[in-house]
Amino acid sequence: MPEGNWEEIRSRFPALAQVTYLNTATYGQTSNATFGAVRAHFDRRNAHACSDFLSWFADIDRIRAKTARLINAPSGDDIAFCTTASAALSWLINGLEWKSGDRVIALSNEFPNNSYFPSTLSRFGVEYIESDWEDLDRHLNAGPVRAVFLSTVNYANGFRPVLDGLAERVHRAGGLLYLDGTQSVGAVQFDVERWRPDMLSVNAYKWMNSPNGAGFAYVAPALRAALHPSVVGWRSDQGWRRVDHLHHGEPVFVEAAERFEGGMLDFPSLYGFEASVDLVLELGADRVEARVLDLAAQCCSLLEEFGGNIAHQDSAIVAAEFPGVDASALARELKTAGILVSARHGRLRVSTHFYNNEADLSLLRSALSGLIR
To answer: Which residues, other chains included, contact 207 with Cβ-Cβ below 8 Å and sequence gap of 6+?
Structure first.
């Protein structure tokens, strides 16, 4: 791709010709290539009557390897596919043996996945703690911790916790680090080797611009060895590819992360996901991040022109509070004007991806000038 040819990239996303779309934190847009990959799978099914279904799993192994490359994980063996980030979180919650007195921590105002499920562990006598980021180390130092749950970017306000050294601090407290990367992977770079989470989950329909049903988890080798698979099916035994003579009896699990998948996968969505991964790898994750953060910085300046207060200005999610303005009503008025944004907890949330451009922001400015006085 010629350097800086973002308009050509934009043209690959047909929905952008219809609306001014500034809402990727809710849904990413689908490229022609992603749509084509999904359709090609169904064409293949029609052509072969699914007689080649085992070869689909060879394709999945290829997609695992690309996904590992995307997040700088050592191997495709570290990647398991799931339909949602909450499914991956369920593997963790349901696969650990909890005991009374265990302590788990989530950040305050987290996405509900990361607070709802850990809070249900009270039935085992587990203490659930919600902590502000500034108080996290105090809780880690107060005694052993079993697990810490947080998002790489907060969905409502754009906060990006500093991940450098976090895993080491959690591990020193005896805990596991679970990260939800749904609101960052595909927009800003993620480096498994640098940040070393025990598990990273990503629902790919947002910043990875993939169909619903495509998601993945990185599961560190040490956690794979300790975590009991909670979804057990015909693919749980290591000999599952020998479909003429499937193993009967207790399954022997493979060491790779696919041990948590259990059964069939959402192949159409995962083929679409592969096309989205290919695009990020084609562009370069570093270039994507630079483009995304540049547009976000321009968006911050724009919203501040109209009196918006923005607490966190270093992520793709720009969340502005406008004193005396109902953010939900403002988002509805912008939608009427053909500009799609969202509102979260009293903030107007604008989320630009690499397929956006300065003309989108100009249209947002024009619309706001008639709505905020």
So the answer is: 24, 25, 28, 182, 183, 184, 185, 186, 187, 316, 353
Give me the sign of the Cα torsion angle 332, 333, 334, 338.
positive
Structure tokens at 328: 């939900």
Q: What does the alpha-carbon distance between residue 153 and residue 161 come to, in Å, rounded to a whole number?
A: 7
Q: Do domains 6-22+284-369 and 35-282 have the same CATH topology?
A: no
**CATH of the structural domain 6-22+284-369, one choice from 3.40.50.11240, 3.90.1150.10, 3.90.1640.10, 3.10.450.750:** 3.90.1150.10
328: how many CB neighbours lie within 10 A of its CB?
15
> pLDDT tens string for the chain (373 positions)?
444 599 999 999 999 999 999 999 999 999 999 999 999 999 999 999 999 999 999 999 999 999 999 999 999 999 999 999 999 999 999 999 999 999 999 999 999 999 998 999 999 999 999 999 999 999 999 999 999 999 999 999 999 999 999 999 999 999 999 999 999 999 999 999 999 999 999 999 999 999 999 999 999 999 999 999 999 999 999 999 999 999 999 999 999 999 999 999 999 999 999 999 999 999 999 999 999 999 999 999 999 999 999 999 999 999 999 999 999 999 999 999 999 999 999 999 999 999 999 999 999 999 999 998 7
User: Does the domain made of 35-282 have the CATH classification 3.40.640.10?
Assistant: yes
DSSP letters, 312-365, are --SSSEEEEE-TT--HHHHHHHHHHTTEE-EEETTEEEEE--TT--HHHHHHHH
Domain map (residue ranges) of the chain: 6-22+284-369, 35-282
Strands 176-180, 199-203: pairing kind: parallel
* Residue 17: alpha-carbon gap to chain centroid: 26
pTM over 0.85? The answer is yes
- Residue 358 in contact with residue 6, Cβ under 8 Å? no
Which of 290, 262, 259 has the alpha carbon at shortest distance from 187? Answer: 290
The token duo for 134 is: 């500034």
